[in-house]
Predict the structure.
Amino acid sequence: MMNKYLNTKKVLSASNTAEYRVLLSLLLTAIFAIAPVSMLFGFTTYKADWSIVEIFLVSLLGFSGSGQFAALPLSESGASFLTIAFVTTMINSRYFAISLSCSKKLPKNKLLKVVASHALGDEAYAIEQGHNQRAMLIIRFTIFLSWILFGVAGGIIAGLFPNLLPDDINASIPASLVLLFLAISYLQNRPYKSGLITVPKATLGFLISGLFYYTLGSIYFWIPSIILLSTISYLLNRKY
């Protein structure tokens, strides 16, 4: 009986070790993808007279590359806080649907659930598929903290070497790295499943978004599309 217990323990230990090695590789790749984007945000905002504390707080509370970069020109143009909040909320509304699709894996502790939901990003969602709750939390918090640290590092570098990058630098190249990482990671970690598979879901999303785009226009179609698709996704997840 003791030998059987020890053998089982060894198998589980080996399995956990192999899983965490794979997890480490995924996390390092994710950090490599987000680091230049986050550092560029810190660099450009510091040169726009943001303080290191402001960069830290926006990265901590906002945690959205697109939303944070959108807030920068709005802030420079003198837009009100409500305008900035509305625009960033529209951009980040996609996370409502993403969070809803993986809410069953969240911890039961309310505080940890809120923090884990806030720490969800595109990169974490792409690589946490198929992993257990512990691995999911490790993925989310590692990427979340890395984003904050690299953003602050970018601000510090801008303070030390203000002429290191040109003023009109474009974020498209580092952003493209993130998109490439997301596409590859999602395809590797999200296999087809029974029920309503990925292609019909994507088609449905395209049709509904197109309908709202045609009827409401390019500015206001986003949030209604997210709300309706989130509701449909929630109902389908309950059924399948």
Summary: The chain has a mean pLDDT of 75. Residues 2-47 form the longest helix (46 residues). DSSP finds eleven helices and no strands in the chain.
